[in-house]
Amino acid sequence: MKIGVISDIHGDFLSLRTVFTELEKLDISLVLVLGDVLYHGPRNPIPEGYNPMGVAELINNAPFNFIFVKGNCDADVDQLMIKYPMLQEFALVHIEEATLLLTHGDRIEDFENFMEKYKGVKALLTGHTHIPVVEENKFGLHINPGSISLPKGSSKKSFAILDIEKDKFLVEFKEIV
Questions:
Q1: Could you say which DSSP state residue 12 is in?
Q2: pTM over cut 0.90
Q3: What positions does the domain Calcineurin-like phosphoesterase occupy (predicted)?
Q4: Which of 16, 68, 131, 135 could pair with 33 as two cysteines, CB 3.0-4.6 Å apart?
Q5: Counting Cβ atoms within 10 Å, is residue 128 exposed (0-12), middle (13-18) or buried (19+)?
């Protein structure tokens, strides 16, 4: 099953629209959103396509199913704009024969030690750093799709396509141009 994984939208309507167009072409039906949806945050610049109301409308009318987790820039008032539950800090998702743990990642200092607490979880999906990552440790896979709006380090705007078959994972990063 192919799944879209996005994080750190930060109100960027133009980038999100581009991502949704790509996900539709790939016939994706489920999108995991790892936080920081509407607001750009006090330490980030305002993204070029900043339009939080447009982002909410785009999400609410998209042809996908969504699972959200709360980011450090998400607030209770944001839930008034998004029709999907978006304020839980963690979500456990069972797909095929794999259990995924979703969280924004802003409160995790050591991913390997964090994953040790969650036996049976095959992959931890986080955002927050705005840098795409796929790393395996003895407890499972850590995946960060990067940011679709405000990349950091030498990364580009990105999201991920996660292909799960039984408990095998294939992660493909897609850059937004």
A1: B
A2: yes
A3: 1-166
A4: 68
A5: buried
